[in-house]
Structures are given as structure tokens and as C-alpha cells.
């Protein structure tokens, strides 16, 4: 399957939902992933990307959270579950998927926050990820500001 922007978007959508479920239910990653494959049409989804985001966040949770917690005005546990899942997923992307431009990571996360998050969560997500990107992708952000 050719990887399209739409397939990546669906991968992020499902990964955010899977992370949400993992946070709330505490089921194993394998169980949650199997449920997603059984319950959703994954034929137009970048399944490898979904798997990388979902498992990558869980395996690197402390390091991922460490990239954005300095910019929070509360603890990670005090975030609403959608914002927590989105920040974890997006920070992982910023940290481990340098093949994806930082602006794409932020825009996709903001779009998901608008769709699934509480009112105005997208503004909070945008601000935290802007600061996280400035740290994790300093050269990319600086080059973008010069352009």
C-alpha cells in the first residue's frame, strides 16, 4: 500500500483512540490492537504507522512525557484523557519520527483535539506542542522561521 496523507491521518486517529483506551482500561497493548483490527476497517490506514505510534508511546512513556511536561501548568495525570493521549502521541512523533515535518505533527494533533477533545483543548495542545517542537526540532523550527 502506498502511504498517503489520508492513511497516516487514519493511523493517528486510531492510535489516539487506542492510547485513550490503554490509559482508561489498562488492557494490554496486544489486546487493544487486536480489538482495533477486529472493529475497524484498517484497509485505508497506515497500519505500520498506527502500530509504531501506539507501541512506541507505551514503550517510551517516561521519555515521551519528559519532552512536554516542562511546559504543562499541571501534572500529566490532571490532563483530560484525550489531551493526554494526543500530547503523548505527538511528542513521540516529534521525538522519533523526524521524517514527518513538525508542522504536520502539530496540525494533525490540533485537528484531533478539535474533533475529540474538550472545548478549546486544541489551543492548549497547540501551545504545548509548539514549545516541545522548538526543543526537539530546534533546527527545523529555526529554518522554518527564516523561510
UniProtKB/TrEMBL annotation:
Superkingdom of this protein's organism: Bacteria
InterPro entries, alphabetized: NusB-like_sf, NusB_fam, NusB_RsmB_TIM44
Keyword Ligase: no
Keyword terms of this UniProt record: RNA-binding, Transcription, Transcription antitermination, Transcription regulation
Domain NusB/RsmB/TIM44: 9-132
Role according to the record: Involved in transcription antitermination. Required for transcription of ribosomal RNA (rRNA) genes. Binds specifically to the boxA antiterminator sequence of the ribosomal RNA (rrn) operons.
Cited NCBIfam families: nusB
Family as reported in the entry's similarity comment: Belongs to the NusB family.
Entry protein name: Transcription antitermination protein NusB
Gene: nusB
Amino acid at each position: 500500500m502506498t502511504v498517503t496523507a489520508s492513511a497516516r491521518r487514519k493511523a493517528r486517529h486510531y492510535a489516539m483512540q487506542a492510547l485513550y483506551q490503554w490509559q482508561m482500561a489498562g488492557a494490554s497493548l496486544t489486546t487493544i490492537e487486536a480489538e482495533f483490527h477486529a472493529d475497524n476497517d484498517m484497509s485505508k490506514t497506515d497500519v505500520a504507522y498506527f502500530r509504531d505510534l501506539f507501541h512506541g508511546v507505551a514503550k517510551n512513556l517516561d521519555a515521551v512525557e519528559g519532552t512536554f511536561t516542562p511546559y504543562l501548568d499541571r501534572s500529566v495525570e490532571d490532563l483530560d484523557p484525550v489531551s493526554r493521549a494526543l500530547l503523548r502521541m505527538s511528542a513521540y512523533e516529534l521525538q522519533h519520527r523526524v521524517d514527518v515535518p513538525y508542522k504536520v505533527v502539530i496540525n494533525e494533533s490540533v485537528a484531533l483535539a478539535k474533533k475529540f477533545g474538550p472545548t478549546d483543548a486544541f489551543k492548549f495542545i497547540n501551545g504545548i506542542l509548539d514549545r516541545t517542537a522548538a526543543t526537539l526540532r530546534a533546527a527545523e523550527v529555526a529554518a522554518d522561521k527564516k523561510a
